[in-house]
Amino acid sequence: MLITDREKMDAFLPHTRVWQGIPSIEKTKGGRLFATFYSGDVKENAGNYCVLLQSDDDGKTWIDPIAVAYINDDTDRCYDPCLWIDPLGRLWFTWAEHGSARRVMAAICPEPDADVLVWNTPIEIGGDVMMNKPIVLSSGEWLFPSAIWDPTLWVGPSQVVCANNAEKGSAVYMTKDQGKTFSRLGGADIPFRSFDEHMLLEKKDGTIEMYVRTRYGIGKSISYDRGRSWIEGIDSKLHGPSSRFHIRRLRSGNILLINHYAFTGRNNLTALLSDDDGASYRWHLLLDTRNEVSYPDVTEDESGNIYVIYDRERGAFKSSLEEANACAREILMVKITEEDIKKGNTAAVSPVVISKLSPYSREDDPYRKESCMSDEAFIHSVVDLEDSNEILRRLFARYNTSCVNLHKVDIEALDGALTALVSGDSRIKTVEYIVSLLKQNGSGEASDGIFTRMIDYLKENLTVEFSLDDMAQALSASKFYLCHIFKERTGTTVYRYIRAQRLAMAKRLLAKTEKSVSDIAIECGFTDHSYFTKIFRASEGITPSEFRENYLKA
User: Fold this and answer.
1) Contact 432, 496 (CB under 8 A)
2) How far apart are CA 525 and CA 534, in angstroms?
3) Contact yes or no for 378/444 (Cβ under 8 A)
């Protein structure tokens, strides 16, 4: 739902926000700037909403907000907003909705320079997640990047699940009639993709390149048929700290990439420029060296001015108001030109604060639900939940800092207690015991470190049989905690991840070698030919032999 009533928007003013981030920007022909980002609750979950801002003085001052995309505070969320000016001069305000439905919505303003903005009734683009700008092909079609996350991801009240195998991947929606109707084209299922956040770029030879956020940086796939099918994904070698980037062709024909360069995390946000169609990036201009600067979006005006928007220290996922208020919680904008990038003109880089949150001033404490409870009150609040997995999630969330102190926690005792909890035995005593274990102090391993070791273990054991107990013993950690961290970071389970990697390996061998299906099955870690065929058909909709035949025909 798009809210434009001023009285109703009072509930979304800056002083009501605990955090904010994930921005987008556009500029009209008349010179008006629009910006958007999302907020709501204390993190990215149910209750999120997208705000739209406006500036009529080139970003010096902003009206916050002029519109809000919002559904329901308890069960749904609006998030990942994006702005785009189409070839007709119309402003598109898009956002993702998750809750009872999963879809990308778009509100279109036909005259964004008008004194009074009028919005068309929001339309549905598709059932995926989109957060980056569309592109217009030289042949006239408009392509919207949109994805099914890989393969399930917690989004508050519900999960995003691929409806069928044909839908999975970083895909595109095409419109040939200027947004009246949309059709979903093919998708690229790039290994290790992370929330996708993909962007499209038409090359001078007519091919379309898709760049996708991955856990190692940025992956790439290519389409030779205007987005209908995509080749196997590869590492683009553009690197990055697993965060959103921005890539586009400028009016000059050069390619602009906004990414983290020579980074140690989400820092050193940099503008990179290519004059050889993306083969190399000769020029670099450092935009912001600070930590936790991320998620750039760009617009270019008719004079060649480049506007870069990004966030800094969002303030989400904190444990208290004091901790959130200590974050910058800024949305910033930098205005530069191609010449500035070519000259490395750091003097031209002057970040302007579009929005900066003051301390949260509403009377209620948004963290009151659990973080301010005593241990006794917390235990009684969760012990009667029907879903034991939800109890585990809330236990790990509340005691996350202590939970990673693995050197001091009795792993066998913890796993035994968690097993008892799942089976429903003596719940309150079991939860009390788990809390006592998780609260033990000691210097342990941060979740980043153990997640990295998990990935290394899975790679090393990709083609051999192992159990969660085997992995837990090898990493000296609780198998329940490992599963929690893995699901939190990847959105999937260990077993689904292993199966997907084995299938990806099998597809490569089927396409690139003459090995028999039986040999490939064994080499990829499947127990036998028939089991491999069953799993392959369930995933791809065809048998391994049919996959090989189709690849050879192509």
Assistant:
1) no
2) 14
3) no
Three-class SS of residue 490?
helix
The total of other beta-carbon atoms located within 10 Å of residue 554's CB is: 8
For 461-520, how does the pLDDT look when each residue is reduced to its tens digit (9 = 90+)?
888 888 888 988 888 777 877 887 787 777 778 888 898 889 989 998 998 899 999 999
Place of tokens 């898709």: 210
The DSSP secondary-structure symbol of 394 reads H
Give the Cβ contact number of residue 56 at 10 Å: 14
Supply the pTM of this predicted model: 0.70
The answer, yes or no, to whether the previous bond of 23 is cis (omega within 30 of 0) is no
429: Cβ contacts below 8 Å, ≥ 6 apart: none
For 214, the 3-state DSSP assignment is strand
The sign one gets for the Cα dihedral 122, 50, 88, 133 is negative
Which tokens is 439 given?
């609260």
Please identify which residue in the block is written with the tokens 């917390």.
378
Residue 531 phi, psi dihedral angles, 5° rounding: -65, -40
Give dist(CA 184, CA 175) in Å, integer. Answer: 9
Cβ(159)–Cβ(129) under 8 Å? no
CA distance 277 to 291: 30
Residue 453 CB neighbour total at 10 angstroms: 17
Q: Which residue has the tokens 């003097």?
A: 347
- Answer yes or no: are the C-beta atoms of 471 and 433 closer than 8 Å: no
b/e code 411-425 from CB counts within 10 Å (16+ = b): beebbebbebbeeee
Compute φ and ψ for 527, nearest 5 degrees.
-65, -35
Q: Each residue of 93-139: pLDDT tens digit?
A: 999 998 666 789 999 999 999 999 999 999 999 877 888 999 999 99
With residue 489 as reference, give the H or E element that holds it: helix 479-490
466: tokens are 């192992």
AA identity, residue 129: V
Question: Distance between CA 229 and CA 237 in Å, rounded?
Answer: 22
Q: Rounded to an integer, what distance in angstroms lies between the CA atom of residue 179 and that of residue 263?
A: 39
Residue 518 backbone phi and psi in degrees, to 5: -65, -45
For the chain, which domains are there?
Answer: 2-356 (2.120.10.10), 375-491 (no CATH), 496-553 (1.10.10.60)
User: Exposed (0-12), middle (13-18) or buried (19+): which is 195, by Cβ within 10 Å?
Assistant: buried
Residue 123 CB-half CA count within 13 A: 11
Q: Count CB atoms within 10 A of the CB of residue 211.
A: 27
Q: Of 133 and 442, which is predicted with more confidence?
A: 133
DSSP 8-state class, residue 187? E
CB 435 within 8 A of CB 399: yes
pLDDT at 456: 83
What are the strands of the beta sheet with 234-235, ordered from one edge? 193-202, 208-214, 218-223, 234-235
* Type of residue found at 43: K
Q: Which two tokens stand for residue 67?
A: 């519109």
